[in-house]
Specification:
This protein has about 850 residues and is of the alpha+beta class. It is built from 22 helices and 27 strands. The strands form four sheets. The protein has an eleven-stranded mixed β-sheet. Strands 4-3-2-1-7-6-5 form a seven-stranded antiparallel β-sheet. A five-stranded antiparallel β-sheet has the order 21-22-20-24-25, covered by helices on one side. The N and C termini lie far apart (about 80 Å). It catalyses: a 1,2-diacyl-sn-glycero-3-phospho-(1D-myo-inositol-4,5-bisphosphate) + H2O = 1D-myo-inositol 1,4,5-trisphosphate + a 1,2-diacyl-sn-glycerol + H(+).
Length: about 850
Amino acid sequence: MAAHTTPAPDPILTSGVELTKINSISSKATLFRVDEPRGLIIYESSKHVEIATEDIREIRTGSDAQHYCQLMGFTTAELDRRTGKTLASKMRLAQLFSQYKTLHILAPNPDVLLRFECIIRKLNTIRAGLAASLDDTLMRESVWDAQYFELGAGQDSQLSLDELQSLCIRLNAHISRSELEGLFKTVDTDHTNSLNFQQFQNFVKLLKRRPDIEALHKRLCGEAPFDFSVFEKFMKESQKSELTSDQLKALFTKYASTPAAAVLPLSAPAQSTSISPPPSGTPNAPPPQPASPAHTLGVQDLGTFLMSEDSSAIKPPATDMSLPISEYWISTSHNTYLVGNQLMGVSTVEGYIRALLCGCRSVELDIYDGPQGPVVYHGGTFTSRVTVFDICNAIAKYAFVASPLPVTLSCEVHCGVAQQDMLVDIMMTAFGGSLVRVPNSEEHAKIAVLPSPEALKGRIMVKTKNLLLSQGIESIAAHKKAARAAAAKAAHLEVESSESESSQSESEAQIVMDEARAEIGKLKNKWRKIRGEVPSGSTDTTSKHKPAMSLALASLLVYTVGVKYRGIGKSDTYTPEQIFSLSENKINKLIKSGGADLENFIRHTQKNVVRIYPKGTRVDSSNYQPLQYWAAGCQLVALNIQTMDLGWRINQAMFMRCGRQGFVLKPPALRDPTFKLLQKRTQGYLDVTIISAQQLPVPKDKSGREIVEKSNIDPYVEVVLHIPAWSEKPFLPEDASYKHTPPSEATGSAAARKISFATPAVKNNGFNPMFQTEMCLPFDCLGGMQELIFVEFIVKQDKSVEPLASFMAPLSSLQQGFRHITLHDAQLLPHLFSTLFVYINVREV
């Protein structure tokens, strides 16, 4: 019988493979290698480049990459011979506003392509999955151990004491030489003065010891067993759990082990093991109880539980999508076609792909006449152009990858009727049955209430101004206004003038009302023709001039009919399907006016959808902060998602709470027609104890490479509350420990105010710094809308501007108690191993 042999590793993982790296102006043969233990794609360009596979947003091959291959100048014949590959990868750059990077590669033959792709997809799946969830502890530890053993070990796959010390420095685990020698001797059981992989794993267990978890475990149960009664008390009193006793028992059993398996770790370098008593509500140690040999929670078990998704810092997402779409905030992109600024940026389908993949449910198209068909670009600027055909095909492919909920195409149509018809043909071909439109056979039905996201799953809606109806609507509004004036005059004369004069005014009012009815009749006839209800032999007597809008395009406007803003009030009515757009300047004035105007506006948003867009002077594609507009009930608050600033981070954090499906149900205060909840103002405190951090990311230079020579850092943590400016006299206690930053002219009148508190820096430790800092951050809240107060945890270096990592979430989404927070980079991608251990408590005063 043949002996079993281990298959040889793919050369791509060892010596590498030569691929052609291309861009719009050149191509270059480049050696690519995949470092499997570290999860990196490595190649030499003008500099040494390393791409973490967990950061790859998307991999495109074959026909999916054909568009880019053609842009790079490859003909169809060349594509038949060579298979195109695109790795759309985000490089971890140090700059806060770092942009997406795309790597274009051509493989020499399909076999090389397939092997390379399989390796990358496998690593991406494993590592991106670990980054997105704290579960699967064994896999996480295995990946970490393999990654750093590979980084530190020599060609002999052994770690000497010097190599181990260098690795510890790179990990920001700066322990003294004598302490390191002690740990080294403890795990070097065969006395070879070097560590193999298994011995390195034992060393890591000592290095990752959690004295903070040990102290918590001891404070909860003392010397008695950590049995179910201790766990239940801990979960209900400290963690504020709402699980039933049976559910808690199942959770306890999942993580509990026997006493033999729950022993403390081996001795490690001395650190402070005290945990500052958190605010009231944390249980004291219960009285000693008899041991239960089958069900106890050891220190390691408690740590595993606190690091798991079962103890997540974020509450499970809400999933009710059965209410009208007007009752939701909707993730919205502005100038979606741009990947740069609004003046000189590049128009590309990439903008739509990025927006849709991050959960945006409304994207924008500015459409103009093109040489062969309609094109999209930013009018009056130097931005490039992209065809509607390419955009619609990209939308068709990516619309429902991240979310099944409906997508709205917010179109500004500037092209003529002929290309409007072409536009509709392109959309019908690309979207097929997904496109919402009015079939010719369908009877016109009045829309009393908008459909729900659930009812519109998998559908694509078009929103643009209905130019065929806009003049009629404005004419009707003018006639009604004149009729009201005439009626008021008649009522006045009835009191002060003769009966004949009064009758004359009433006649005037009647004439005006008759004219208004006639205008309404004309408008209805025009709408029936659009919907295909006018018999084919009849003629349209309401339009003697060449129409400014295609009838086919008008037939796409069903639940999303764009209209001009005519004000808000009893005299200004809109049907549920009518949507108007306001610039940030216009909505700022409305919000500032307050009173009845703002109340009428919020009441309008309970039945109708409103879109907000950035002012035109934001030529750098910067973003406003969306909090004030969400607080006014606006659903489509459009942001430049290509610009990763504070407004973008707040928007991403908002829609994270619904699993990035793009729809978040507005709080009851904004949906209550009585407005009673909006009259309620409360004050409270966010109590946070920053306990410790685990394996903070190493600082990077401007090219995104780790700074290994000077990797020692002095980290500190800043906690910031972003609070809507919904009170002229915010809750600001006299305690001076926090910092208050009101909106300024630089941030804009609609910006949120900030309350912040920072811990002291921990010197020379980015691996397992212990902060043990309590902070108390005051906030005020309108209508109980804690969904609009955002909490940001920012890890910084002492005397450094750029954050090392951060995390943001709505206050209402944070779970209370002891929690591990997964830290993210500047683009909000999770760091694979970096966490903060905190205690959270929210209380009203």
